User: Fold this.
Amino acid sequence: GDSVTQMEGPVTLSEEAFLTINCTYTATGYPSLFWYVQYPGEGLQLLLKATKADDKGSNKGFEATYRKETTSFHLEKGSVQVSDSAVYFCALHNFGNEKLTFGTGTRLTIIP
Amino acid sequence: DTEVTQTPKHLVMGMTNKKSLKCEQHMGHRAMYWYKQKAKKPPELMFVYSYEKLSINESVPSRFSPECPNSSLLNLHLHALQPEDSALYLCASSQVRQAGRSGNTIYFGEGSWLTVV
Assistant:
């Protein structure tokens, strides 16, 4: 079945550091890939998405590229801010499955 | 507008109480979902409604009873819950998946924090 493997956390970085959170997936066919963010005490917000190979999703300075050859969708940001502190979930949604498959989540803490 | 609205935001209930969680969306989505999220875990799917009909029940105990009165509303009726049911309950919606096409974007609400005492 479908699965998502996400970089273990927690991750702690200084403000303005470069961020990478790794995400790889296993799925048949051509799933859509997502990054969701969950700020403390809140629900999930869609951060970015990509629906086909080589697509790049971007939002709020975050980027991720759908790499089918490496089955990866790594999240990157060039300069993180304290306000980026949250839990980040990588997820996929496959056309043969109603279920959104999540990774385990990565807790990110940015220190001033 | 990509908004899913959930009420109440917080709910404390006793094990003998009956309560309901409510969810509303006005994006024209015809698929709606209930997810349960425990602390430090990803959300887990509970139910899926497609065109107002229940299409998936992930073996959820009968003390959770979903209802989809119309295309914009989704309820989760709660009765005789246990303390271990305390969690964040997330409602979500999306376009209905079409055969042969990749997955649709699922939009989540802010969630309802449920505490069972």
Notes: The first strand of chain A starts at residue 3 and ends at 6. Chain A touches chain B at residues 29-32, 34, 36, 42-46, 49, 51-52, 89, 92-95, 97-100, 102-105, 107 (CB under 8 Å). Chain A has a mean pLDDT of 94.
